[in-house]
Amino acid sequence: MSDWTKLGKRAVETLSPGDFGTLQAYVEDKSRLKINLEDGELDEVLTGRGSGLALTAVDGRNTNFFCFAAPGQLERDLGDLPGLLDLPGGTSDLDWESPDEYEMDVGSRLDVTPTEAKKDRVLKADRRARAVDDRVQQVRVTYAEKTRSIDVLDRAGWIRSEDQQFVNFNVLVIAGEAGQRERGHSRIAGYRGPEIFEEKGPREVAEEAAEQAVTALEAEPVEPGPRTVVIGPGFGGTIFHEACGHGFEADHVYEDVSRYAGRMGETVASEKVTFVDEGAIDSLSGSFRIDDEGTPSRRNVLIKDGVMEGLMTDRKYADLLDIEPTGNGRRQSFNYPVLPRMTNTYIEAGDADPDSIVEDTEEGIYAAHIGGGQVDPASGDFIFSVTEGYRIENGEITTPIRDAALVGNGPDVLNRIDAVGDDLDLQPGICGKGQWVPVSVGQPTLRVRELTVGGQDS
Amino acid sequence: MTEFRELAEQCARPDGNDGELYAETRRKRNFEWDGPTLKSVRTDRDGGAGLRIFADDRLGFAYANLSRLDADWLIDQARANRNLLPPDPDEGLTAAEPEGENRDDWYDSTAEQGVEERRDRVTDRIEATLESEEKLRNLQVEYEESTARFELYRNGSFVAGERRTRFSVSAWAVCQGNSDVQSGFQRQTGYRREDLDVEAVLEDAVRDGRRKLGASPPESRTGAVLLEPRASSGLLRLVKDMLDGKAVARGRSGWSVEDLGEDLGAEGVTVLDDPSRTAGAANAVFDAEGYRMEPVTLVDAGTLETFLTNQYVSNRLDLVNNHRAARSYSSLPDVGSTNFYLKPGENTPDELRHQLDSGPVVTGIQPGSGLDSVAGQFSVGASGYFVENGRRTRAFDEATLSGDVEDLLSGVLERGNDLPDGYSVAAPSLLVEELSLGGSESS
To answer: ipTM score here?
Structure first.
């Protein structure tokens, strides 16, 4: 048992239950490796490590949160939890001898591979991206890995999840011609070992990024206005994550700042839409066996055939809403309190052939790759950039477009989906809600009638 | 106080090479309200140290937080990482002259006590706002006080250190009309608690949400646009990203050193970065390499003068180092900014609306990922209202505002006198000659 775990245990034994509501201790031990290449040069190799303790006391609506990166800090900050350091530990009748362990299948250990070999992957990606086209001007490649072990301790017991390991391989390419410069970006990420590169290697990631940048050079600006938009599989999930998914988080529903508050059992989307959050899938960016409060992850159906059926919640909001915890209590690190968060969130596959969806679209936009965006969570209004897009003319994907943005309202868009393909794909993402956690987003090929496409008049 | 001296001495001259230790501690108190209910209180302590080892033009780095600090581990890791890197003649540890003592210029000691009283005052303001605003469905407020301190050592000797405070308040107001829900946001940051105007922040957030009620997408059009400070400040981030010397050195900026001395903006456009700006949000004495910072004029009357640099970037681009290194203990020095702003003019917002006469006033933008500093272009979400004959008419939202950085800077016809306080990136209202506003239909 580490010093932090002993301290967490003592806090739970002596202070819970009491005046502070339900107390939970969270211990995290983590390490990190990052290798960065830019401008043809390897310019950064760093390693780091850290550990700490978070204590969270929940009493109804109120959360009292403390975190510490050095044991001595407790003495300075725990005035609000009197007696913690003075009371003897071990007075509880709870079984604290060993934790219940939850392990995720993440493949081989990352630390078995020498750093030199990881560096070679970065160099390979750089060379491959530059070989794709003479117009490639700049390449940035980042390999990052993080490992962490967590212990969650409360009156219900002691739970541990060890050796969670996360890989992120990221390639950014800038291509230029005649004064015009465009970006391309590709990435793989997930809770995996080195096996992650067996599905898609560094060269393929680099090629995708380079081809995206070069294609954008040949693209034309799109005229702004309403269009039928076919969203290719995978990255469009970002829109539904941001513009709809956050509305199914229990804190937003409880606080009545979600468009979905009070709508359980109502039709909130096209009947073709089934919207799911599922942390229990192995190896993806939003995967885990237990969440950061020790609740096992699971499959949560949010919308079934257009009807609202579920929420995503941590323990606090589960209590407030009188529902079961769903395994969605997540935090960026021990420095942050748990919040209801998404994991791997996607629209389920339908039965339409993706090619026929395009063929049945006389005129519109095909959004192959959607980048970042922004959403007003209260209204669901959003804007997202199309980082790779094409015109659809007479049922065929034709010329590439650039500088296009999709503007609309998430809940409204869910109602305007009129075709769902059978080609579900999930892609890694990062979700911000005052703190950052890795997630996956996904959807099959979808068609949305009447979505505003912003751009510049040509 | 030099808390990390012992560790710095242990890390001095590893293997006979040069070593540099950057250490910091942070303490944060944070309060969040859902309506009048205080829903979360956070006390966050963190800190750690990062070691850079330099030899043969190669630089290795490793870090640990406070609970895992160990000189031998840091040295072993930094040494191993250095051995993986190729030589780079522009690299090096800080060459700043030692300052001899920690500085407290931007530190407000009141952060150490009385936080409960300040928390209660925020609660009172929230309750008053909720009572007075009919269309307010919810108000979520966050108040935070933080103290951060860094110390920098080279070969075991103290170079520089500084302690800073930050007070910030942000408010998110959800407003409801007949069948419409819209939200507004406002945030303010200062190094002294007196700099915060909680009442004004709450009122601004509510005003921002309320004025969007009933908005609809506008017709697509290209022409003169008035950008209010939220929108102009948001777009100024694109200019900041393009003036980042690291981005220039790495070919990630739409500008290059060949553009220095070129006219990139209208005569009225002067862009500065000032670490000591009154009512700034990011005031500081030293950069993260221990150099004393001074105000820098980056664009002077439309002419590009220089880029933001740190020691490495100034070596790489052969520019004067204007000391804008930024980092945490867990990262290498990058290039940052302090209080980055576009110089205000003389016009009142009302005068600018009359000069626009008829056209869109953009009150806020959703930048998303629509600020492209590589291409120097932007395509962002926009909301606001139209004026006709200088008078406000209907509100719009679900629009896109697009153009390139030259359209923006060269097209500045007039500047407002309303440069906002409490932002690290700030611009006044700008009347711009021609930008594209995309909406539901073409006009």
So the answer is: 0.93
